[in-house]
Write a structure and sequence with these properties.
Layout (H helix, E strand, L loop, with lengths): L6 H23 L6 E6 L2 E7 L2 H4 L6 H13 L7 E7 L3 H10 L3 E6 L24 E4 L3 H18 L1
Parallel strand pairs: 3-4, 4-5
Antiparallel strand pairs: 1-2, 1-3
Length: 161
Amino acid sequence: MIETVSDDQLAQDEVWMLHAQRLADRAQAQGEVPVGAVLVKDNTLVAEGWNQPITHHDPSAHAEIMALRAAGQTLQNYRLPSTTLYVTLEPCTMCAGAMLHARVGRVVFGAFDPKTGAAGSVFNTLQDENNLHTLTISGGVLAEQCSEQLRAFFRERRRKT
């Protein structure tokens, strides 16, 4: 379900999204698309990740996947119930599928992805009624800041080519 959040929850979401944006800066510093992700449980950081498919020569090394992998190791469990994943860009179908399998409880994203978004923009993978599990979704948290970071990255990339 798309949720409506309280002012307190929104403030908390913005704090974690700012953390995810700092991780997106790490991705950008490595020449990767600037996307960062933070996995939180009970308002405590469990794991973090940033885009690294080029660095790792791994098409699955998206920020969300990196955070989910780290969280599994930290919690010693492939199931991550009652967690919230904060990510600066709306998840793709691959990442949405991983969140479903991990049983993440909630996803909060910044920028909408009108080309490949799987949290409602193009696909609604996270809330498909055929899934055994669905996630609560909050989209657009610090959307302008997250979007601008991506736009600036791609502007610079186009300028260099």
